[in-house]
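**Paired protein data**
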Amino acid sequence: MSYLLVISAFNKLNFSLHCTIHYTKLILSIIYFCRKGTIYKILLACVLSIFTSCLLFGLPWFTSCRPCPPNPTEPCPTIGRSGIYKKFQCPPNQYNDLASLIFNTNDDAIRNLFSKNTDDEFEFTSMLIFFITCFLLSIFSYGVVAPAGLFVPVIVTGASYGRVVGMLLGKNSNLNHGLFAVLGAASFLGGSMRTTVSLCVIILELTNNLLLLPLIMMVLFISKTVADAFNGNIYDIIMKAKGLPYLETHAEPYMRQLTVGDVVTGPLQTLNGIEKVRNIVFILKTTGHNGFPVIDEPPMSEAPVLFGIILRDHLLTLLKNKVFISSPSATTGNVLNKFSADDFAKKGSSKVRLKIEDIQLLEEEMDMFIDLHPFTNASPYTVVETMSLGKALTLFRELGLRHLLVIPKISSVSKILIPC
């Protein structure tokens, strides 16, 4: 039992380092390469592919050949792509154990590592080299444009780590090295994905051995507990590294003591219902907000009124199509007929997004106006400034909102706050 505690707890210390390096590596690759353009993304993927190929073809030369076992379960050396006994540079009736792991598919490598009665078919140095190689390559390959994946490489890395621990224990344990590989893969998956129940089912499907259920459950519980003390799961770390917006499922306890009015920031950037083109261009250039409240002020209304919210992309579309009027008066006729649904549709990641720098306007056009009323969402979600922050977060997340307007209890334009 103590062996299981060691392999799970120490494994998660290692994987916490793994997640931390993942975070740093993604920051570097995204900021310095991916954000520079498609050419840099492809260049990074090509460099990593060439480095990986040279490394994997070169490492087996540093390991010695092993004689074929007396009664092998399959031909030795192996004929074909899959198999345990890869000949590589070895003479007849011998095989290279490291090449047998590297020059196999991930499925066959996992099958070889999980196999029982194979304790003598892999040397300790070969298994240690394989583990370190998988560990480092998974760090530097994930996050690039090449579809390297994460789930199966984590299983391979964890299985090789389990084998290394089993070999280190040696005669101090009578457990099969294949069992250590299964538990090592379970601990790596549990500490990285943190989805314990589904992972338990997946590993049982892989091994087809219901007797391993208590051991796998214990390893997953220990690995998840230890890893939670250091950082979040690997997917949360990747989302933070890429700057993707993400809200936790449940609000933090301290949020119940705060109101939304306590946390919003300014200064507020609003637009009038009929706004000058110059002001719109200035706001778009000086802010990175994706939504702007539209306010009707006298003489358009008797008092300042929140008319709705308009998106940055919609403003850019209006500027691009130059839907201008010469005087600050309401537009006559149906101006929406000049546009199609595709003009205001959300742009996919494959399409080039319009930027304010791409729009060229004449000086006389800058002094004209745009009537924003026909293009504004007149029914945005709003909350009162005294609402609990935790309640507002739950509303924001469960409804899948992009913007949430915070309005004061007493009508005042200066207190209408920026969308979240």
